[in-house]
Design goal:
With about 190 residues, this protein is of the alpha+beta class. Helices cover about 25% and strands about 35% of the residues. The chain has one domain: tt1808, chain A. Strands 3-6-8-9-10-11 form a six-stranded mixed β-sheet, with helices on both faces. It has a three-stranded mixed β-sheet with strand order 5-4-7, with no helix packed on it. Strands 1-2 form a two-stranded antiparallel ribbon. Strand 1 (about 20-25) and strand 2 (about 30-35) form a beta hairpin.
Length: about 190
């Protein structure tokens, strides 16, 4: 077996410097830098709106979900780290006392950046579909867009696309309005 054919393991992820994020997809190691500030702002802002309404049930939200930032997912032999993930509590009543989750999320979000957009779209989306993740959101803070995808059969269908300063109610989180301007660091109108 040549070095190019080598299958990587979780030990390879553990050996990475702290400022890098490692993921294993089909035995390939993918290493990304820590997110840039626009990426971190979009992820943090979205997590704020969803955690408050769905994680805590605050602001008139329905609660009933676990919403986590950058959870490490060990699923089907892969190690994946989406920017945000959510599980309905009826499917995952408690959080395991572990550093990773082994239950497929009901929803997740990838915040796209120039260095990770190709990986997110070409490698991770098909894997998420194969695992059965029902909803994926793709947020691009530079383009100021939110794409809402739903699993239909074995592939994702884009069911909505929003941009700029729109105020959005998107499945599976229609109960809360998200002002996209807040994700880009702009004042909402």
């Amino acid at each position: 077996m040549t070095a190019a054919e080598r299958l990587f393991t979780y030990d390879d992820i553990l050996a990475l410097p702290e400022h890098q994020v490692g993921e294993l997809i089909a035995g390939e190691l993918h290493v990304s830098p820590r997110p840039a500030l626009p990426h971190a702002l979009a992820s943090s802002g979205l997590g704020h709106f969803l955690f408050g309404a769905y994680g805590l049930g605050g602001g008139g939200g329905p609660g009933g979900w676990w919403i986590l930032d950058e959870p490490e997912l060990h699923l089907g032999g892969d190690v994946l780290v989406p920017d945000l993930a959510g599980w309905r509590r009826e499917r995952m009543p408690t959080l395991a006392a572990a550093v990773h989750a082994e239950v497929v999320p009901d929803w997740l979000c990838e915040v796209l950046s120039p260095s990770t957009a190709g990986l997110d779209r070409a490698k991770k989306l098909p894997r998420y579909a194969a695992l059965g993740v029902a909803h994926v959101w793709l947020v691009d803070p530079l383009a100021r867009t939110l794409e809402v995808l739903r699993l239909v059969g074995e592939h994702y269908a884009v069911i909505a696309a929003h941009c700029d300063d729109a105020r959005v109610r998107a499945e599976p989180f229609e109960a809360v309005e998200i002002p996209l301007a807040a994700l880009w660091g702009a004042a909402s109108s």
